[in-house]
Every structure is written in C-alpha cells, then in structure tokens.
Amino acid sequence: MMDKIGSIHKKRFIFLLLDNFSLISYACAVEPLRLANRYHSSDFYEWKSASENGKTAECSAGTNFQVDMGLEETNRGDTIIICGGINVKDHTSKAILNWLRREARRGVHIGALCTASYVLAKAGLLNGKTATIHWENYDSFEEEFDEVALSKSVFVVDENRSSSAGGIASIDLILRFVSDDLGQDLANTVADQLIYNAIRTERDGQRLSIPTRIGVRHPKLSLVIQMMEKNIEEPISPSILAREVGMSTRQLERLFRRYLNRSPKRYYMELRLQKARNLLMQTEMSVINVALACGFASPSHFSKCYRSHYNTTPYRERGSQGSRNVIVKAS
Q1: What's the pLDDT tens digit per position in 260-272?
Q2: Model pTM?
Q3: Which domains does the chain have, with CATH numbers?
Q4: Could you tell me which residues come within 8 angstroms of residue 15 by beta carbon, excluding any fewer than 6 positions away?
C-alpha cells in the first residue's frame, strides 16, 4: 500500500487473527492507529483483518469476528501482525507458515502479538533475531527455539521483525511505529488520548518488579529471589544464597519465614515446580527432560514433589493437557 497523503506514504497493517487470539492485544494495536489518523487529520494508516479461512476468527473470549481477507498476497509496503493467544500451537497450520514465509521473501515486515512469536519462530523467520513473547510462554519458547535471542522486554523491533509480549504491550509497539512514522509528539498525543501515561520502550521488562510481586520491599530478599529465578536448572543451596547477600543461613531462613511464610527451600521448590508445569503444558518435552530442566536429578523425586504441590503427577498433567488439546481441535 503505497498511496500518498501529500508527500507521505500511507501504511497498511494486515492483522492475522489466529483462533483463540487475545482480544485485548488486538484492540490495543488497532486503537492507536485509529487515534493516530484522527490527530494527524488523515487516513495515513489503514488496516485489515485476516484469518486462515478468510471468513471468521474466534477470540479467546469466545466472540467471533468477521475478517476482511484470507491468506492472500499483500502489498510490498504492508506490515503483517499475527495476533496470538491461547493454544497457539494448535492454530499454527502449514498454510499459515507457508504464507508467512512467502510474504517474508517479498520483504514484508512481519510482527507478532502475545504468543504469536511462536508462529514466527516456527516459520523460521526469527532465526538469528531478537524477539519477545508473553512471560508465561518464555520457558517453553526458549527450550524449543535456541536460535532466537529471547528477550523479556515488553516489545522488540529487530529490523523487519517485531514482537510484543501481549496484553497492553501492543500499545507500546504501535506507538513505536507511530513515533517512527509521524513523530514522537503525535505518539505522545495518542498515548494521552488513551490515558496511557507511561509509554514503555524495549528496555522495559514485562513483569512487575519482585518487590511488587511479593508485596515486600526488602533488598536482600529481592536479590535472593532473583538469583533463584535465574538458576532453576542448577539450584543454588540456601547457604550459598545467604552468603551472596551477606547473611547467615539462619538469618535467611528467618527472612523468608517472616515475609513469605515459608522456608527458602520451599519457595525455591515452588518456583521450580511452576516452571515444570509450564513446560509440561506448553511443550512436548519428555517428563524426564522437564525434570532435568527444573533441577531434579531423579524423575521419581520430581514426580513426588509435583504430586505433593499440584495433587497430580507430571504424567497425568501431560495427559490432561493432551485431552484439552483434542477438544480444542475438534471444536
């Protein structure tokens, strides 16, 4: 789409809606474009929705949307944005992958919202590039696509590829495009209209800070938890964690008991089991490999700890996820 407004080229976005796409991510991408047109007093941005069947797509909230087009050839100056959501693997078809590869060969900028970075990576379009994905899918993505430099930023733009982490992070990505195309002043005006008073950049992380997440502002406690989160595969002993922050093991125990009502060992175990559950639900890794990736040398010990925390075994968890996926595919 290379029509001109005065001396400025118009820009068109094609939003590919996967079934079960995140409605908030999609809406937060489209609204800034509409407002940019309003305050630029032009139709600089155009957008169309697309789906694999060319007719409808259903969001994760259950609402069906009529779309404008199917997997058709786009214009060279277009930007394709894939809108992902839950069960993204189930909705990543060969037809979609082939379409994206074809459009990429033509030089089209292709981006991803929420979990759709998985689709780009599966198509091989993120090899050697930096990308981001929703934090809940970070571990499984990292295990499957080691050729992608994965970031925990709210969004990433790497040459002709872009990605945002989902939720309202779409606003930040689109405001980056608006700033590049029409200037930072206009991007700020759009943010004001959205009552969005803290535009984030690629340097901003997705998740709340550790003190905010745990509801405690204690620098040494936050530092220990940060070390735990970075060392899941090879857990660090409480004595070493304590020494790293200048405390005794007993002082560290009292700190965790006081603020988190559990021991450091228990808290660490819960972090490891949470990652294990994400890997079981989102990847096809064997249970043994999941155990190893989460610091368990023995599958039987892993199974015992998992059952104690989640009241089911890793094998049953994997089986129940498979059943849910069958239901999704059949519907």
Answers
A1: 899 999 999 999 9
A2: 0.75
A3: 4-193 (3.40.50.880), 210-330 (1.10.10.60)
A4: 26, 29, 30, 47, 48, 49, 50, 81, 83
